[in-house]
Design brief:
307 residues, 2 domains, 3 strands, MetI-like fold, mainly alpha, three-stranded antiparallel sheet, 72% helix
């Protein structure tokens, strides 16, 4: 004979409810700690950045180059080098990443996918310092110098190619997940209309997975902008950099500028406003990354396809 249904029975076991409340409190605490850490980072960056801006002359932010120990804080030098290296990296990563994602999602057999996808994910886990050393010892002398005979030993081109190799797995894995989430029925409908596999991928799968693909590109761009060790090792210009648009010249990105000055020695502070300039560059880097993430989230919300 079944027991009658009561309100107490619907409430559930008290021990389980207490356990669920403890777990919920733990998760809320973890979220609040994360928010507090983020706020503390932003506040510390903003405070030192304001200290820098309040003491520096505006003309010193637009000079011939970035030499903070000499009182030259040319921000366009860092922005130009960051843009060039990240752009070269995206030129490498987008075709390679999308090609890999297309093969894994549409052409590879289940057995090949089981072998290839973990291999690509392992490539994403290679430390950037290893890729930086590889860019310095192989890409620069064996690729860049052979193609461009006028290239210097340290170039933004070599650093950009190394960054491209670094972010290719990111584009590939995220895009492949987005493409595999497209319903099979759309592919079958395309085949039923007489389209071949290549046309189906180009005209059906890509548009349906567009939000995820674009999100992977923006995520890879943020990773390229924030990369440090590859550009620090392969792009040269450790002590400073002149403003240049030539990718065959040495250059210094925002992250490399911070790394080259804050090397862990007792000379980090330097003279004048060199130390405070690092916080200003860090705040710029934070704002750029925040803007990219905001654009990515808005694009995904606007163009996401729900099936």
């Amino acid at each position: 004979m079944t027991q009658p249904l009561t309100i107490e029975g619907l409430v559930g076991d008290r021990k389980r409810r207490r356990r669920e409340r403890r777990v919920k409190s733990l998760f809320v605490l973890a979220g609040l700690v994360s928010i507090a850490i983020s706020v503390a980072i932003v506040v510390s960056l903003a405070g030192e950045a304001w200290s820098f801006l309040s003491q520096v002359e505006l003309s010193e932010l637009f000079t011939v180059g970035w030499f903070p120990r000499r009182g030259l804080f040319d921000i366009p030098t860092l922005l130009i080098a960051t843009t060039i290296i990240a752009g070269i990296g995206m030129i490498v990563a987008i075709p390679l990443g999308l090609g890999t994602a297309s093969y894994l999602a549409e052409y590879a057999t289940p057995r090949a996918r089981r072998w290839l996808k973990p291999t690509i994910e392992v490539l994403a886990g290679i430390p950037s310092v290893v890729l930086g050393f590889w860019a310095l010892t192989f890409i620069s002398p064996e690729v860049v110098s052979r193609i461009f005979t006028s290239a210097k030993p340290f170039t933004m081109m070599a650093a950009g190619l190394g960054v491209g190799v670094l972010i290719t797995p990111l584009v590939a894995t995220v895009s492949e997940d987005a493409m595999r989430s497209v319903p099979r029925e759309l592919r079958e409908a395309s085949y039923g209309l007489g389209a071949d596999r290549a046309t189906t991928v180009r005209r059906v799968v890509f548009p349906a997975a567009l939000s995820g693909i674009v999100a992977s590109m923006i995520l890879a761009l943020s990773r390229a902008i924030g990369e440090t060790m590859i550009v620090f090792m392969a792009a040269g210009a450790v002590g400073g950099a002149l403003r240049t648009w030539d990718p065959l010249d040495p250059g210094q990105t925002m992250t490399a500028a911070i790394a080259s000055l804050a090397t862990g020695s007792d000379q980090v502070a330097g003279e004048g406003l060199a130390f405070q300039s690092l916080f200003f560059v860090g705040l710029l880097l934070f704002l750029i990354t925040l803007a990219l993430n905001s654009v990515s989230n808005r694009f995904v919300r606007k163009y996401r396809e729900q099936y």
